[in-house]
Queue: 3 jobs
Job 1
Amino acid sequence: MTLQKYSVCILVASVLLFGLLLAGCGSKVISVQKATAKKDQTHLIEVLTNAEEDWLIEDAAWGLARVGTAKAVAPLLAILNNTSGSADRRAAAAYALGHIKDPRAVQPLVGALERAGNPEERYWIVVALGAFDDSDAKAALESVCGDADVMVSRAARKGLLRFARGER
């Protein structure tokens, strides 16, 4: 076989393999989107706890932010407290916990804020804490009003303003 034909064969095989990989990813994304639309919290929690891909876990957490109840809190807290996991996973878990507003999440969110080094992670933790009517959440927000990251400090000030107005 000539070099040109060999190169074409390699290219075709690569395209086919890439297509198969995308098809597998696509079906996982679609399953999470369908579960969110159907408010299938059980499937989203299953993805959250069993998936290996960061992006899929993040999508499931974002879905739980829309449809989650107290049942989702424990697996979301497990992700939030997993310091060996990605900051994006923890940020998505924090966001979901802020939407669910279960009071069990306040102390773990405060602890996560103290540990977080990633500005985006800190931002979503601060947004989540801003959803709670809790003195510990308020103290944590006050502690980051002067954060070096402008988005984090702005989110903290907005949370405190909502707290002062009683907007929870």
Job 2
Amino acid sequence: MDARSDRNAIPLAVDLDGTLIATDLLWEGLFLLLKKNPLYLFLVPFWAAGLENLSGHWQSLWYHGINVASAQAFTKRFSEKFAGPPDNQAWGDYVGIKIVAQSIAETKSTDAATLIQFLERGPSFEILKERKGSFRAWDHQLLQEMYVVKVKDKAHAKDKWDIFDIVRAVPGPKESLEMIQPTQSENPCKMG
């Protein structure tokens, strides 16, 4: 099937490297900041001041220092091949491809509609974190834990990539993964 000529084809979009999310959040955050006060535009050059000025607590989807066997194995393989640990983008690419491959294997299909229906049923996926992830049917959001990280004192860093200490996973181990997601009434995303 050629999706360009089939008007009834359902597209399957996968943001494997997270650049759509990161770019959208960057622009959205900048415009919201400027909406509050247009003079903040003059602070933008200081925003991109560099890693040496990084401090405080941050949120992270994934970090190569996660103490989970599958994450450590992935980090080891990646580091051996690319002479440095994987970042969020590499993690997202790897996990995204594994989710698509698992979905194709379990459905025995590459049809987008079949894959979407499968993902909407909520199967769990190993995503190199303590908890497995699954997709929420109504907005196709990957439900997963995130991490609160603290910028590490440079004197305690093992190497130039050792920049964070993981403070904790959010939500906690006994909390719903829905906790950090917008509800259906709060979310303007309407699938279908």
Job 3
Amino acid sequence: MADQEGRFEGVEDVAERLLVDPQTVRRWIKSGKLRAYKPGREFRIKSTDLEEFLETREVSPKAKAPPPLDSGEDRGHYPYPWMGDTLARTIDGWAKQAEVPPENPMVSYAVSVGAIDVLQEVLRYDIPGETLGDRVPEDEVGERIRLAKKLGRVLRSANEHYAASRDVNSQEVRDLLNAEADIRRRTQEIA
């Protein structure tokens, strides 16, 4: 075994200490990365050489983690910050998609369906007779209303693009427009 006064360790001891395969230690030695001695059949590594080897391979972060996308206004109260950031990025992406009619009407349809799904969760109106204030903390109601209005604009634009396409399913258009009208009505009720 080794101590810090320059004693020697065997390949197996170093491998066990570093939680690597002994062959890995031998490769480091043969490549010149880890200094070692071979007084007999086996390599021996001086403790100070091992410490020097480890110091040269210390890993530190290349850069700081990026700050959140915003002050949290669009993020909401999610269990993990990335969830809110991901939702904000997704909604922004949908808004950009909805600005210009895409070549493929299915893009508009997908944005509409996604916006409806998110709006239904944001508004949480699945129990008749309950209001949003009954279901979410008071400080979150205004936040959800702002998000619902933003998503409502995205939904309206995507629905218009889809409905204007030649290759649409008329029943899908009716369903989307009915869902949009229902969401608009519920948003106005709670706003």
